Amino acid sequence: MLEPSLDLYGETYERVEAVLADLLVKCHARYALIVDLKGFVLVHQRAVWAPKPPSLDSLATLIASNHSANVAIAKLFGEDAFRETVQQGADVGTYVEELGTEALLVTVFDGSAALGKVKLFTKQAVVRLLEALAEDHGPPPTLDLDEAFSDDAAKLFDGLFGKRTQP
Amino acid sequence: MSTINFSAREINFKLVYYGPGLSGKTTNLKQIYEHVPGDGKGEMVSLQTEDERTLFFDFLPLDLGKVNGFKTRFHLYTVPGQVFYNSSRRLILRGVDGIVFVADSAPNRLRANAESLRNLRENLEEYNLRLGEVPYVIQVNKRDLPDALSVEMIQAVLDPSRSVPHFEAVASEFKGVVEPLKAVSKMVLEKLAQKA
After folding, report:
1. Which class does domain B3-195 fall in?
2. ipTM confidence
3. Which positions in chain B touch A72 (Cβ < 8 Å)?
4. Under a CB-based contact definition with an 8 Å cutoff, are residues B158 and B121 in contact?
């Protein structure tokens, strides 16, 4: 399938970004991101005061995989899924909510945020995000990939490894 | 199944290294990580047991650069090869765009290769996918073993119709590591271009 897991482009993308930014302000969280269930980051926001985040690719992959594992565990007990996923360390924690059937909303917070607020405002953000995504926002942009697309990518692969590193 | 982010102008692909236990899947990723310069790769994440066997997966993001104005990225995953970790293998296959099947050349692993390929087919069916529909290549690894089986014999078991591209490799020495990755990536990109 060519579509992104969520239709995020144009005005919808901007609205989603605004909802995430608002979420960060309301619950004083560090980062908010939407990841798809394959482990890719779709959109993210960072509080202005927050330190530089860790690798978002790694975070998204681990969150998505952890979610898949949790669903599998829940099914072992006859549940469809566990209702919520909270992870809390000494200072930093994550809260994960399902965003429809193909994505997750992840809120990363620290000791300056109250967990109750994080949960409340994350749940509210999910509702607002689903409303934004449900609106008619026109057809997605076309990819417009020409025949040279894969050839150009192959050349970049050569550059990535550098021919001198080949044995 | 690629994830396309139009606003960020990013295309992301998921490639999975599959194969029996100890065939060299993690070694492939480690070698790629070692040989790609810093700006072309992200962190490598390994979820391993204490004896360094893959428990859940290894993960390595590669950043190819811009193609047709889109930042093009490949996320490489391995699955745990041990038979009893099938639930993990199935989860990792979600949204897969391409597969490198890492076969072991050791004579006593021929059956394990065949069982792993059968297991791959079964797990893909969980996502309503058939192996023939997903770009995939075979890497015949451990060609440096003194008693390595012939490639023809391994092909006869894994790909009797000889329709799947195969590559001989000694992954621990970075031999034959790049070629299967490039080949499957090209297949994935061509598939996307055709659909576009």
Report:
1. alpha beta
2. 0.78
3. 87, 91
4. no
The tally of domains found in chain A comes to 1
CATH of residue A112: 3.30.450.30
Nearest to B186 among A2, A5, A150 (CB): A150
pLDDT in tens, B54-113: 888 899 999 988 887 888 899 999 999 888 888 889 999 999 999 999 999 999 999 999
Contact B173 A146 (CB under 8 A): no
CB contact under 8 A, B174 and A146: no
Range of the domain at A104: 10-142
Which one-letter amino acid corresponds to residue A59?
L
Q: What is the pTM of this model?
A: 0.88
Picking from B42, B192, B193, the nearest residue to A57 by CB comes out as: B42
* DSSP secondary structure string for all residues of A45-84: EE-TTSPPP--HHHHHHHHHHHHHHHHHHHHHTT-S--S-
Distance CA A145, CA B182 (A): 19
Is there a contact between B92 and B11 (Cβ–Cβ < 8 Å)? no
Closest in A13, A141, A153 to B189, CB measured: A153
Task: Report which of B45, B1, B25, B47 is spatially closest to residue B141, judged by C-alpha positions.
Answer: B25
Q: Are strands B10-18 and B70-78 parallel, antiparallel or unpaired?
A: parallel
Q: Is residue A71 part of a domain?
A: yes
